[in-house]
Design brief:
alpha+beta; 6-stranded antiparallel β-sheet; 1 helix; signal; Ferredoxin subunit of nitrite reductase or a ring-hydroxylating dioxygenase
Length: about 140
Amino acid sequence: MMCSVKKAVLFGFFLILASCIKQEDITTFVPEDTRVDITIPPAFIPQDGTFYVTNGQGYNANGIVLFNYGRGNFRAFDLTCPTECLEAMSIDNSGIMACNTCENKKISFTQYQITIKENGTTYGLREYSTKLEGGVVRITNF
């Protein structure tokens, strides 16, 4: 009886200790102050549908793509494939992002199609928060 009480107390202690250990937040891949000046090249993206890629940012430094949706609205997405492979996706001149590593080469995204359903599983691009401050877009974690 005494042994089982000690085990229960010890288990509770480890449970409390484990809950205090900070787990890595999967959305914290952008440095706190990532800014893109959209008024000068190479990040000059004045028109709706245009985009800019920040290399070396995001998960595994695979890059972040910043899209101009028009009227001061910008959205930023991680260029890491959201499937199990977690490799960098390529992006072509029209803004289509595709994973060349995955077995299914049909996995691709656009600025308007940010989720896909493949074999019953929905995959979505990791999105970051954006805020336009003058001619600079600030990209942060949500």
